[in-house]
Amino acid sequence: MKILEVSNFFYPKISGSSRYCYELSRRLAKKHEVKVITTRYPKNLEKFETIENIDVVRVKSFGLGWNISSLSWILPELSKEVKNYDFVHLHSYLFLISNQTGLLRVFKKFPLYLHLHGGMDIPNLKGFKPIFKRYLYDPIVKSFMLRMSDKILSISKKDIVGMKNAFWVPNGVEIKDFPFIEKKPEKINIGYIGRLEEWKGVKSLPYIIKKVKKIEDINFHIIGDGPLRSYLEKNCDAKFYGNVSFSEIPKIFEKIDILILPSLIEGIPTVILEAFSSGCPVIARNVGSVSELVSSKNGFLVKNDDDFVEKILYLSENKELISKMGKNGRKLVEKYYSWEKVVEMFE
Q1: To bridge 329 with a disulfide, which of 43, 132, 274, 298 should be the other Cys (CB 3.0-4.6 Å)?
Q2: pLDDT tens column, 26-65
């Protein structure tokens, strides 16, 4: 089969959906002909190259819109290529190149599969971006993109409830890269891994850490970078790592016993799958589609900062649960979320 992937970014520039595109494409390329049209961001990337049997074409980028969407004009390149492939697999409706793909579908009849990567619903956050998305972008652009797509794929079951021609093809994790380690800690280590910005809920970390440390001697590790890093460093009694390469993340999971995820917006976070694969239970805010992964068998879903504190202290008093939950998380990943399983579902 000949598959044309369209992604806002692609390896080595990694984000949520672009990482998914890369991981899926390199596995599909072992059996199928795969080409990726993406953007030349950052500018030092090659315009044409072959990566793990994948032909990659990068279209010029004029920068980023809202720090997420490459400002690229892909219509000429895309129009030339669509006739040569069995279908176009488009990652997310949220980017400028996604909207151009939908526009081309109005004038050219080619099979278009739109893969949703979360972000379908957001809480009532303040600011222009969430208001624009909720009241203008989604009612107009999202609706248009769904109409233009022959099939809808989604990493989240929740996001496709009631949709026709919609299929669940979730996030994946390479379980060989994240080996299971049974957690039997004497002193608990809690980790946060992700961007240090407001929508990730990191402003909750100072309160959570301070409250926990008043009662228990627990170590906290904060992995990631972003605009709130200096604020957190001043207000959190924790070890900071900054940006860590993907290859180093499994070593982080060797150090921590529990992952916390205070995000205000999430789809199906890959970091939860990595934690489960590594034997770490997860305490996460109950937003987006997080509840599709986290349950009382492998962690806790919470509503507010005090709930985080309560559940951390509960596990510190019942350490045997950390091991039990970690084993259950690993079983879940092996059953549904290994990349081997995901590729089978996609095919």
Answers
A1: 298
A2: 999 999 999 999 999 989 999 999 999 999 999 999 998 8
Diameter of the chain measured on Cα atoms: 64
The distance of Cα 231 from the centroid of its chain, to the nearest Å, equals 24
Q: What is the DSSP string of 162-184?
A: T-TTEEE----B-TTTS------
Give the number of other CB atoms < 10 A from CB of residue 186: 5
- Residue from 332, 330, 260 nearest 302 by CA: 260
Quote the tokens at residue 173: 């994790």
The answer to whether 260 and 308 have CB atoms below 8 angstroms apart is yes
Is beta strand 54-65 parallel, antiparallel or unpaired with respect to 48-51?
A: antiparallel
Cα–Cα distance for residue pair 247/298, rounded to 1 Å: 25
Tokens of 120: 């379908």
**What are residue 284's DSSP bridge partners?**
261, 301
In angstroms, the CA 20 to CA 15 distance is 8
CB 289 within 8 A of CB 159: yes
**Nearest-CA neighbor of 238 among 259, 217, 260, 220?**
220
Please tell me the pTM assigned to this model. Answer: 0.88
Q: Residue 130, preceding bond cis, omega within 30 degrees?
A: no
Copy the structure tokens of residue 302: 């919470």
Q: How far is the C-alpha of 263 from the C-alpha of 308, rounded, in Å?
A: 12
Distance CA 198, CA 60 (A): 30
